[in-house]
């Protein structure tokens, strides 16, 4: 996910100051800052860990009063002032992209992984001759941590209803 996002930031010459929000672990890894600064040393970068956002989203709190208050509280931090672009460094965060756009009044480019990564995967599949022109078989989704709230989440990403079933996972003796 990080490499296509880095490429997107590098391809946009209007971005001079970029911020990033993500989990504590992602921010602590320094992955975005390291990769961006290696490619464009003049870029100003700031990062803010936002540990409440992923669990908030997982529990179904987005596009409501609770999410609005938490998101605005994070985005008001000095680390994220005067930026041209904001990297959404967590795969959950596209669900709150509109709330983030609202905060910045659409004056900051909000960079999320959804379209960027999908286009990159499509390009790789085309190059490798692996892109199927026709969909075959049912879609299957595998998750690491199945919860009741997860049951509601896929419909927020896709405009279809999901009937999820928990399958037992084989573990060695």
Distance between the termini: 34 Å
Low-confidence stretches: none
Binned strand content: 5-15%
| Rg of Cα set | 18 Å
Q: Which series of helices and strands comes N to C? A: HEHHEHHEHEHH
Average pLDDT level = 88
Q: How many DSSP H or I helices?
A: 8
Principal-axes geometry comes out as globular
Main-sheet strand order equals 2-1-3-4
Report the helical percentage.
40-55%
Largest sheet at a glance? 4 strands, parallel
SS elements, strand count: 4
Helix/strand/pairing category:
alpha/beta
Overview of this structure, please?
This protein is α/β, with parallel strands linked by helices. The chain has eight helices and four strands, in the order H-E-H-H-E-H-H-E-H-E-H-H. The chain has helices at 2-11, 24-29, 31-39, 53-58, 65-75, 97-103, 113-127, 148-157; strands spanning 17-22, 44-49, 85-88, 109-111. The chain has a four-stranded parallel β-sheet with strand order 2-1-3-4, with helices on both faces. Strand 3 (85-88), helix 6 and strand 4 (109-111) form a beta-alpha-beta unit. Helix 1 packs parallel to helix 3 (31-39) and helix 1 crosses helix 7. The radius of gyration is 18 Å and the shape is globular. The chain starts with a helix and ends in a 16-residue tail after the last helix. The relative contact order is 0.15.
């Amino acid at each position: 996910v990080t490499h296509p996002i880095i490429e997107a930031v590098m391809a946009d010459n209007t971005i001079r100051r970029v911020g990033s929000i993500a989990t504590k672990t992602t921010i602590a890894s320094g992955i975005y800052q390291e990769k961006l600064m290696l490619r464009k040393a003049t870029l100003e970068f700031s990062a803010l860990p936002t540990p409440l956002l992923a669990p908030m989203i997982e529990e179904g709190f987005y596009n409501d009063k609770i999410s609005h208050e938490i998101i605005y509280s994070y985005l008001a931090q000095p680390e994220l002032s005067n930026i041209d672009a904001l990297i959404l460094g967590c795969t959950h965060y596209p669900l709150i992209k509109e709330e983030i756009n609202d905060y910045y009044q659409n004056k900051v480019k909000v960079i999320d992984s959804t379209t960027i990564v999908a286009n990159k995967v499509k390009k790789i599949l085309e190059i490798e001759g692996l892109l199927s022109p026709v969909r075959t078989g049912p879609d299957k989704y595998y998750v690491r941590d199945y919860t009741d709230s997860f049951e509601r989440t896929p419909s927020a990403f896709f405009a279809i209803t999901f009937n999820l079933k928990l399958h037992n996972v084989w573990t060695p003796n």
